[in-house]
Amino acid sequence: MTNDIIILPLVVHLFFSIVLMFFWNKVDFQKIFSVVANFIALVVAICVFVFVYNNGTQVVQSGNWEAPFGIVFVGDMLAATLVLLTAIAGFAVSIFSTISVIRARLRFGYFSVFHFLLLGLNGAFLTGDIFNLYVWFEIIIISSFVLISIGGEKNQLEGAVKYFALNFFASMIFLTALGVLYGLVGTLNMADISLKIAEVQNRNLVEISAVLFLVGFGIKSAIFPLYFWLPASYHTPPSAVSAIFAGLLTKVGVYALIRVFTLIYGGDGFLNTLLLTLAIMTIFSGGVGAIIQNNIKKVFMYFIICHIGFMIGGLALFTEVAMAGVIFYLIHDIIIKTNLFLISGLIYRIKATNNMKKLGGLYANYPKLSLLMAIPLFSLIGIPPLSGYWPKISLILASLNAEQYWFFGALIFGSLITLIVIAKLWSEVFWKDQPKLSLPKKFIYFDQLRLGQKFTFIFPVAFLTFVTLYIGFGAEHIQQLSQRIASELINNELYIDAVLKR
Amino acid sequence: MEILLAIITGVLYASGIYMIMRRSMVKLILGIILLGNGVNLLIFVLGRITKGKPPIIDSAEKVLEGVYADPIPQALILTAIVISFGLQAFAIILMKRTFKVLKTDDLDQLNTTDEDS
């Protein structure tokens, strides 16, 4: 059975996280082992991606139970792409973790939990069963609770309480929606639900279950009225943890929204209007929030919220051009947001602060490093031909075609505000002279590190920057891929046929 | 029976959400427990309650005939219960630790992360 390859990413992470548990106190071994494990996972993810790219959607039925009855794993193009992106981000962050996360934290099973988090993410992308999706979500949030609170600093615990309460609440809403949906259609397989939901007489209940899903996934992906936990918690753990959260955890919410609102509730007028309104509000509130922040980590957090709006809005337009834009933006966003938080960690190591007012003079002292950091920042704004530029064309084109001028305005506003804030950040952090401050003495600065350690700091940032550059300059390939995924999502018969073997 | 269970589900949801919105950490934990039970009961009720009809196929037949109790909601609830146990255990430890470090159980006092740093 060659199509079993799509569950290999799960097996790899599960195996390595269990093996890492046996080496609980051997931190140095764990570091090397985790990086090797993530490299293997990256190779496996590339194999899965190539296999799915060449052979189309792959379905694995667990326990050989036929499709509507057992749990299925579906490797369609979207899932395979996201698994690949997870592996890229995971590889970079695991290298960064080896040097930036302090030993006291690593001794509490950091790497083991990190692999469990990646396992949960891969599982959520690959599953074709909605209750199984809930279970993977739980694996993700439990691992993320551990990662956010590991170390137990005052700030971290405070952030963890907020993060825990809201994410738990989101899971309960998701489970409620699932219960209502099961009561309506009597099946849990997403392809089967998609077929049976059209026959349900009570449309009001269908709409209610859809809105419940929207609230549940909305809290996880931080859309407009539900995002307040994010700026209160994401900056509290170490930068490496923030990076994996920023890059992947909110995006898994977006993925779930895309999956549910294309496959199950595709093209519903009321829901699309609701989603579009929320998207516009998300872009505005995230953008305005970013202006007033002084901590660079907080600025980036508000950018996460702002740019989630781009994707949700594209999903609401529900045309092939818009969906292609959404997928392209998702690909760009996962890499860039991970990289931004790694950069904030690097800046912290150089200057011992992340406050813009206290930072400065980075360009004068580290010109080459500044150039490296400039590329992701410019990609975030979307300066052509870097990666943020291409999906925005698709999204703007789609919003004009659909005559949604408010969303069009929000897109322009979001991009402009990103430009303004990044310009401010650049002049404050890189061009301004270093203000005279009493800096902590016991801190190990970047300059005091050995060459190998410096390389370990810079390599992940450079690696992700290289990927960003590829997305920008190889936009033709990514655009082709996004269009293929978009057409698969809009014409969901392909997915249903593959799962149910019709 | 369904009406009674439906009312209990509603009460559990309402009290759970109310408790989560209170300012004390202990009440937050209680709210989490109540809400988790409410959701489990909801899934149970929505899976249609059938009495005395186990889903066991007769040796003479090949498929189930007539009305039978759906086993899936029970399997779902079992999974959900286990998960929520894990989360509740984690919540209690987290809150205890937070109380020790911050010396307060008032959730409104947890606002240092919003300050500019």
From TrEMBL, chain B:
Q: Which residues cross the membrane?
A: 6-21, 28-49, 72-94
What is the topology of this protein in the membrane according to its UniProt annotation? Multi-pass membrane protein
Q: Which UniProt keywords apply?
A: Cell membrane, Membrane, Transmembrane, Transmembrane helix
Single GO cellular component term: plasma membrane
Subcellular location, principal: membrane
| Gene3D superfamilies xrefs | 1.10.287.3510
Q: Where in the cell is it found?
A: Cell membrane
Similarity comment? Belongs to the CPA3 antiporters (TC 2.A.63) subunit C family.
Question: What protein am I looking at?
Answer: Na(+)/H(+) antiporter subunit C MhnC
